[in-house]
Amino acid sequence: MSTFLQQIVNGLSLGSTYAVFAMGCTLIFGVLNIINMAQGAFFMAGAYFGLEATRLGLPVPLALLTAAAGGGALGVLSELVVFRTIRRRGGHKWVGLVASLALARILVGLAQEVFGTEVQGYPAALNLTASWEAGGVRVQLIQLAIMAASVALMAGLYVLLQKSAAGRAIRTVAFSEDVARIVGVPVGRTMTLTFLVAGALAGAAGMLLGVLFNVVSPFMGEHMLVKGLTVMILGGLGNVPGAMAGGLLLGLIEVFSVAWVSSAFRDAIGFGLVFLILLARPTGLFSGFVERRA
């Protein structure tokens, strides 16, 4: 029983980072019906922003805000330089997907030039190594901090989308850009805000996962992008609550597969179960929170 509970704790801490990242991917898809392939690069950049902030002596909460701000700034950059330019020129949405993939490769290359290709870790001075044990279950301070930060980010996104004027604007644009313009919603600024929030979530998730495993590298975002897209589909395209649930579920699946089968089959089992779930329910675990009408 203690082993089962231990894996629950491990899975929730890992799944929390997946959920935060996937929410950003889902938000962009739900609003604009596009996929920003640069989200993984924003995730990686956030890990480095947080790393440099901690090296400068900033406390972890401020470092996390720095990571989120850096990811958000890159998100806005991708919207202004890539997606808005393509929209104005009448380009197909698939052009934006390829262009954002190119942007991701540029950012990975820049990270290699600036930080090198070696794996780096967060300073030991962060003092997040404390842990508590009860009934054979060991809970680390770092796990609690990550889960608390993830819950705060999820709650913040919920409040933004459901309780604020900006959230109403985002939901209106998600429903129909034409309707949004008719009722006076500033569509361009709303799209920029969407990319800002999505990029901030990616950057924050990058630091959270970097701290959890104490690993930061220029290539960490590529694997995370696959996880994020998987969670986005698993939870239901355009469904932010579904992305939260899907991220937690994928984290639990992965840690249980490592504990009970083998670490070599971690991704195979995780994606295999996701595959079976989608065969049974192709729309994902939840229906999308946006219904588009002709």
TrEMBL record:
Pfam family, any one: BPD_transp_2
Subcellular location as annotated: Cell membrane
Record membrane topology: Multi-pass membrane protein
Domain of life: Bacteria
Membrane-crossing segments per the record: 12-38, 58-82, 94-112, 141-161, 195-220, 240-261, 268-290
Keyword annotations from UniProtKB, A to Z: Amino-acid transport, Cell membrane, Membrane, Transmembrane, Transmembrane helix, Transport
Principal cellular location given in the protein's record: membrane
Membership in a protein family: Belongs to the binding-protein-dependent transport system permease family. LivHM subfamily.
Protein name: Branched-chain amino acid ABC transporter permease
Protein source organism: Camelimonas abortus
The organism's taxonomic lineage, starting at the top: Bacteria, Pseudomonadati, Pseudomonadota, Alphaproteobacteria, Hyphomicrobiales
